[in-house]
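anyone else get weird line breaks when pasting these?? whatever heres mine. first is seq + tokens for prot A
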Amino acid sequence: MSQSTLDYAIWLAKASNAHLVGIFLDEFIYRSYSVYNVILTADDPEELMKELDGKDQTKRDEAVQKFKSACRKGGISFSVHRDKSIAIQELKHESMFADLVIINEYETFTKYAEDSPTDFVKDLLGDVQCPVLVVPKEFKPIDKIVLLYDGRPSSLYAIKMFSYLFGALRELPVEVYTVKDHYMGSLRVPDNRLMKEFIERHFTAAIYTVTKGNAEEQITSYLRAYKENQLVVLGAYLRSEMSRLFKTSMADILMKELDTPLFIAHK
């Protein structure tokens, strides 16, 4: 169980007076051990598998109790779902009825460690039915919001969804960050007047930063320089499978390069 995911979830649920659902993906084919190795090495494979399955079940039950205890201590409304079928499909289905999914960037259903973002997280982000907050390994209270905005509807959609869900965080410092190509003359925010009117209606105060250059390089280096714990809002994860073969998602890059929460939303 990811402690940082639990900490972020409870912190945000308390700030937003939200109901928190703990989704425990008890996939029926997933085991913490190798069935193949047990069959090859054990004197009584059936008995050993029964013992190991019991230990796995105990670990799952303990995780549920830990979640319940933390929610009660935090004084938040909560419920628990224990889904038994294929983990990724169960989570995607749950997302149809959720306002937000909070998940650790290293979440995986393999027995070996994966770099961030894992295949499980990338699969989820490619076909999820609500916004996702991808959180790092370590919890820190959020002290700043950075809204990545490039003038496209997808980036504005993510900002809208964040503002609808987290009005309780609007008192935090907010920065709208835009990167333009070198050939674009103005350093004004795209749709400057409309965008600033929109931001003023949703956030108490915001500053605007516009730079020029390669978006991936500029955004990564700018965000990396901040030493506290900012939450970054971005859109447009969803692309065709062919597109993903040739261009890495900005979300993928930020998960690899930064240890900061990412709020990702796409239509």
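and prot B, same format (seq, then tokens)
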Amino acid sequence: MERFLERHADHVLGVLCGFDRLLFRGTLRRLSYVSGLECFLSRHKVLFKDFGAWAERMSQRLKEHAHRIAKEQGRPVRYVASSTSSKEELAQEIMQRDQITQGLVCVLTCVEPCQTYNLRRDRQSKRLQLVPGQRKCLHLYFYYVDREFGLMHVRLQTWLPFTLDVCLNGREYLARRMQRAGMGYQQRENCFTRIDDLPRAQQMLDDLLHRKWHRFLDRLAQRVNPWLDAHNGLDLEGYYWTLRQGEVATDVMFRSPQDLQDIYPALVQHALTQFSCQDVLRFLGRRTKGNFSGEISSDLQSRPEGLRVKHWVEENSIKMYDKQGSVLRIETTINNPRRFRVYREATRQGESCLAWQPLRKGIADLARRVEISRAANERYLEALSVVGRPAPTSNVLDPVSRRVVRAGRPYRALRPLTPEEAAVFRSVLRGEHLVQGFRHVDLRQDLFPTATEEHVRRQAAGRTTRWLRLLRAHGLIKKVPRTHYYRVTDKGHHTMSTALRLRDLDITALAA
């Protein structure tokens, strides 16, 4: 990312990275799976034949509680006929009309699909069974103006297992903190076009990583779900909280809309035409393996305010778009965290140790999730740093087209536009080498895939060694200390990418 910022230093105000939208999901673990619900019903002596009536009474209590809260606070309860209608726009309209600055805004109700349980008769045993299934039920949307997070909502499913969703906005949180601190800023919708004290603002946004989220979320849950009250005798033990969706956005704030628009079309074209599947995998910290069977896709969508490029790797994505004319936003969304790893305590052969484990959905791994997303955004911006370079290609290619002497040994000049040199450049710049680097064997297997016989393989290994020495002599790659890995330098990224783009450029574009 530093190279991108250096390239456009004269036109960039600064960078802000952190949570955009946060969607937490609360699950009552005793009711979240069939055997757990069966034990719960058995404990409370609820027969399967009475399950429907019992569940209806549970649901009715939630609805009555919502109406009582709204009545006590003098707020309206509105039914939304379509699940596709924007409930947030309706809540904002009510908030502005009634000038609500803190507290409950309204309660919206809507019938939406949900995951729940059904009773089914087993033909063989001729007994009723609980099975997971889908149906539609009423959902309650509690919209609040929170002192810290501004307009937010809590969504409660009124049928078992009473799943709860809490949706917050990280940028609104930052705006309110900066306002209380007396910091100057300019906000347009969900982004900032100017912040007077960016380091302090970044620190404020990073405070969300270390927040005691379970306390805040538990208070919201107890406010809307009366069955959590210990006096009810249900002993539900509260909700288990996971981060269902966390959008981590890196905003590059340009000085003016014109500064961004001068380069943005080239960024979009480069992202669509130059980023391969391997590049996209590496942006998200994934290794390209032969057994990878997931789906990778990229698309371009035109919006009223501009163009949006989005890359999908299975359930997770990274996208780029322009916000409010002068903000370039790179945003990583992790929907399935188990595709990533976290270094945490594990048990191996009965002993406790630290090991790389799948990233959990729970809020315990929230900081690691942000670390992964930030790194993905930075790698994406780093890959875009070759775009918009004002200098002519001769300034880049001429230095490596001359003979050099390194450690008293002469090395020949590079020929950046020849097919042989281009093949080496493409191999070194492959997306799978972006994070960890590449080894001698990786380059050899890529350049000489048919070298299987022993004497041919030795010749290929020798040629690969000479290529590595030549690239190091010209400063295009460097060796990682105490490892067998090599990494491409900033000069290498710039030089080799420029040579490949010039080689692949359509001659008609040059003639024009």
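btw re prot B: The mean pLDDT is 90. The chain is about 35% helix and 30% strand.
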